Structures are given as structure tokens and as C-alpha cells.
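Pipeline run #58 for the internal structure catalog. This entry was flagged by the ingest filter as a single-chain record with no existing model, so it goes straight to prediction. Upstream metadata was stripped on purpose; only the residue string is passed forward. Reviewer on rotation: M.T. Logging verbosity set to normal.
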Amino acid sequence: MDKFAALKAFSQVVEAGGFAAAAREMKLSRSQVNKLVIGLEDQLGVQLLNRTTRSVSATPAGKAFYERASTILDDLAEAEACLMDEQDEPQGELRINAPMSFGTMHLGRALADFMSLHPKIRIELTLSDRFVDPVVEGFDMTVRIAEPREAPSLIDHQIIEARRVICVSPEFLKQHGEPQSPRALSGMPCLHYGHLSSGNQWRLAGPEGDMLVKVQCIFSANNAEVLRDAAVKGLGVALLPTFIAGAELQEGRLVTILSDYKAPNIFITLLYPPNRHLSPRIRALVAFLYERFGDRPYWDLVE
């Protein structure tokens, strides 16, 4: 029995939900696919699929075996790709996950430009603000924007530190005046990112050293674009990444305050499974994104 063909047939049946659909995908007859799967079950001595007249589903053992088999097949496909002429012209599919705001504001346009340079690459982009493990969820790469974390099972390629600034609208300054120290923020309306682990406190570093400043939060949200728009409307003081507020700062709709005090930088990082690091597609994308966003990015051309 061709074990590789059997693994591929079994995985295809699980993914397609049946023998007929798997046979069409593999361009084989239904009986050929069935024979391959039965041979695999006989060799392993375990039933991998539950079969009825109406449906096919993986047994518990089959589900566990599918997870390992699909990883093996993916690794083999990646190894084959590295031996092809892809080195000269990267090709194939990239499944990418990224945060919502960064994806809509910056990454989407960057990927469109990347695909113009590499027309044989296909991209599936999923935007989500939840924590994603690319290995578990089958992504080739995930873009993460956060303070550094240990991820020993993944390749961690840091592109750039992303600055955060304390900012307000010019109208807000006219109405409330400019605070002379972070302590003054406790008496001012502030706009707070709802997912910060420090609650309604902002962690800052300045001439006096590190400090936690309790702010008067009048509006919280788990999306920084919402807070930026509220700040532009003059609702309060916001602590925002410049990749969110860069255009407004450049155009004067927001201005920075308390510039001697800095929030800890967050990092734009590319994470991908170790078995992807030799992929020409990944290498090309990492190089492109570093050139696009590395050093001092376009949104940060403002003090």
C-alpha cells in the first residue's frame, strides 16, 4: 500500500465529508479512495471513520490521527515547494491572521502591493483581535501587536516597535488646558482601551521613573480606532498607538501632550510555525513587510 496516498485519501475524506467528494478532489474513483482508507485502517488496526449510508465522520481515534496526518502532509508539501523553482518566483497560498485595525488600516494595502510583485501567490487574510495560535489554527503566519511574549514553539520575527502617545484634540486643550504632569489626568476625562491588563491605570515612564497613573475613564472600548475618533471629537485624553492615530497627528486633528512621559512600546511581530521558515513565500513576505513597516514607518513621521 502507498502510505502517502492512503494518508492523503483519508485526510481528503475527512475534509470533504465523504468519499465521493474526496474522489472528485483527488481525481480518483470512489472505490479507489475507499480502498486506500480501508488499507490504512487495516494497517493501523483501528477504525478511523464512521460510515453510514448518509454520512462519513471521523472516529475519536480518526480525529486525533487526522491532526497528525494533516501536519505531515503540510510539511511534505512545504518541503516539495522548497525544491521547486519557487525560489525564483514564490507561489502558492498563504493563510494570514492579523488584528482588525492594523489589517484594515495598513496590512491590507501592503498585501495587495505584495501580490502585485508576486502574482503567483494567493492570500487568505483573516482579521481578528483574539489571540491566535498559528499552529493550532492552521495559519502560515500571524501578525501580533502586543508587548513581547515568549512563544518558543514559533518563529518570532519582530518588525518594529510601535510607539504610543498621549494625545487630545486642539479643541480639548482650549477647553481643559494642557496638563503639566500625568497626575493631572486623574481630573480630566480620559478614553481607555478596555482590554489593558492595568485596568483604568496607564503605565508611563518619565523623568521621575516608572509610574502607574489612575485615569478618569469616561469612555472605554476594545478598539483603538473608536477611541481615536472620540479623541478627535474632543471627548477626552487618549493613549494611542501612532499606527492608529498617525494621520490625525500629522494633520493636526490630534496633538500630543506630556511628551516627556512614554508608555511602554508595543511590538509588531510576525509569528509562524518553524516548518514554514524555509518557505520562499514566507521569506518573501517577511522581507517585504520589514521594508514596508521597518525602521520608522510612514504613520510615525510625527513627533
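catalog note: The mean pLDDT is 84.
catalog note: The two ends are 66 Å apart (CA to CA).
status: ready for reviewer M.T.
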